[in-house]
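Quick one: Tetratricopeptide repeat protein 1 from Ambrosia artemisiifolia, structure tokens please.
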Amino acid sequence: MEVKDQTHQTYEDALNDDQLNQKILTQMNEAKVEGNKLFGDGLYEEALLKYDYAIQLAPETPSSSEIRSICHNNRATCFFKLGKYEDTVKECTKALELNPSYMKALIRRGEAHEKLENYDEAITDMKKVLELDPSNYQSKRTIVRLEPLAAEKREKMKEEMIGKLKDMGNSILGRFGMSVDNFKAVKDPNTGSYSISFQR
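--- reply ---
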């Protein structure tokens, strides 16, 4: 009876796994290159399919995380070109989950957030870019440009919320022949607190 050498078998298995992973990574890279060519020709939908194919091939291993991250960012760029900004944000987020310091994905996601008028989120991404590269003037300029828009949007949202609360208050108080206009908030200059007074 022949006893097999377990060590030799394990080494062969490891070699086969390594060769298989290398073959898959090569196929992924080829799909990515084909995607890049299609993107260069302005065929964004077709490029998306190639990048998606590369991601589908990818084993969930650290060796493939870089190329997966790049393919997600490339998909994000295709979606951006197609005007699909929510999909751009999703793909950039996937790229950043694999590589949190991926500057291109941060910048692209910030640009998509700006298009969606999510100014605070865009500013957050640009600040992260500056943490990674303090000399990135594009991000500095974007932050300066977006901060007043973000403040204006916050103010508008606050006014809308107050309006909704007033409407809700009026619908309840209306049953009693009153409205929120019957209540006045008076600020105490010493304490900064408000007191509510009722007026007919």
